[in-house]
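Lab manual, section 2.4: Encoding a predicted structure.

Procedure: take the sequence of the chain (432 residues), apply the prediction step described in section 2.3, and record the output as structure tokens. A sample record is shown.
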Amino acid sequence: MMRLALLFCCLLAVVNPLRAELVIEITQGSDNPTAIAVVPFAWGEAGVAPEDLAQVVQDDLRRSGLFDPVARQDMLSRPSTEQEIFYRDWRATQTEYVTIGRVRLVDPQTLQVDFEVFDVLRQNRVLQGSETGPVSEARMIAHRVSDAVYAKLTGIPGAFATRLLYVSVTRVANDRDFYRLTLADSDGVRPIVLLESREPILAPSWSPDGREIAYVSFETTRPAIYRQELATGQREQLTNFTGLNGSPAWSPDGNSMAMVLSKDGSPDIYLMDLATKRLTRVTRHYAIDTEPTWMPDGKSLLFTSDRGGRPQIYRYDLTTGLTERVTYEGPYNARARVAQDGRNMVVVHQQSGQFHIALMDLQRNRLQILTSTALDESPSIAPNGSMILYATKSGDRGILAAVSADGGVKFRLPSREGDVREPAWSPYMGRP
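Recorded output:
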């Protein structure tokens, strides 16, 4: 019965793709963004292109906060080849880089985008590339173009061709909430409802290859951990113990999962071997140990514990079994997430009674508060480490927001419908 309900929800998402779609609102950008023109891409077939891919690229670059795209009405020309570029026209609009592209159908199901980036000052080409994929994934092809342009001009890998998980909550007339676990592109477009329930859905997380997710659902009236394949929708219930079943976190190799269980008393951290379902208890403490997350090398876990009197971040070494406290600044630090370089950790940090997103350099033990809103939670780091997505409040509504790792770039992603919470940024995804 549950699988039928799940399939029905997925079909609803296809029929009504605007459901709970996120809207990008940039609130703060770089002080000195790079002026770049993304010229509308030439379409090599008769008729109208299936998607304005240049607009997708332009929006991606603007959302990063590091680029200031030239408005199309200010473009003095719209070249699609190098020979059609007149650098004096672009210098007149103080444009630093020009991106051009050509789109064509390789066959009825396959789209190819050839693109180039030119340095206006030096009058030379700095990037040339090509991206191919299914016509149905035209926007993802454009996101990969954005990644290539962003990487070339910033020296940082792009993360536009990734996906987001989040939970949206809609209150209905009988005062009961509808919870939807939703998958969307990194810009909030193309939302697909993976699961819909009258009971809470919590703590979505990604497998390291991006092919599966895990989450907590109360659909059986008590919390249970599920894993689900994105391609097929097939799911598996991993736990249903008495008490707390929460905070699933995939290991970097994808072979095991850290989780929080209270089946043996107080909440502790456990590891589950996903092949055998064998459980190993990691922590044994009368305090509350929760919110595990893996260090990228897979050799240790970070978790939140109040064993020192207030919630702080601790590290458990899987080789030695030793536990050490990591955070000391402030009365409250929780929900740690670590960037792929293993150096930066983001946490929910309390200061003056308010909860902010903060970044801690684990090598220097230096903590920097990144947000100024009052009730921020559930941080998730982009796979390139450049942005942190988190949940916050706007008035009485829950929204998602993002801030760059240096605090200089900020944008919001409010939903068209209901509250949104519990964001999880995917790892780099395989090509469709």
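Check your result against the sample. The longest strand covers residues 97-107.
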